[in-house]
Amino acid sequence: MAGSTHFFLLSLIMTLSLSSIDMSMAARSLLDTPAAPPPALALPTIPSLPKASLPPLPSLPTLPKATLPPLPSMPLPTLPTQPTLPKPTLPPLPSQPTLPQATLPPLPTQPTLPTAPKVTLPPLPATPLPTIPTTIPSIIPTIPTTIPTIPFFSPPPSN
Q: What radius of gyration do the chain's Cα atoms show?
């Protein structure tokens, strides 16, 4: 939503800046300029350059194959066997002691508030309500349906 608001504000600013009096005067002065002169003579064509020939690349010499000695075949060492450990036996957990039940004293009661006296308002004055008219008065002028003639817009009398 904010993007469309920014776009709207930007387009409004662009419209107002392009519709300024200076832009209008510049456009009018461009319209008042004489027609463009005929196009100049055709430009001469640029001659094509000769193709550059590159010398051939030298051939790579063949290198002798390297022979590597075979890897020694050694047997992998064996890992020692792990001794088996005895299973530990844990003593049983002690039972949880029971907590004594706490007895709380009763909550105190809220004191009662005194009652407020009854307030009576004075009676309203006996003013009658305004009456709304149900008929439309006929003081509205009627709109004329004919156009009056204006003397100075009429054509001059013929001789």
A: 56
Grade residue 150 by pLDDT with cuts at 50, 70 and 90. Answer: low
Distance CA(24)–CA(30), nearest Å, equals: 10
Pinpoint the alpha helices (H) of 19-147.
21-32
98 token code pair: 């029971």
Longest pairwise C-alpha distance within the chain: 144
Least confident of 43-47, 67-71, 85-89: 43-47
Gap between the Cα atoms of 121 and 80, Å rounded: 105
Q: How far apart are CA 157 and CA 159, in angstroms?
A: 7
pTM above 0.70, yes or no: no
Query: What whole-number distance in Å separates Cα of residue 18 and Cα of residue 68?
Result: 81
| Angle, vertex CA 90, rays to CA 88 and CA 93, nearest 5 | 165
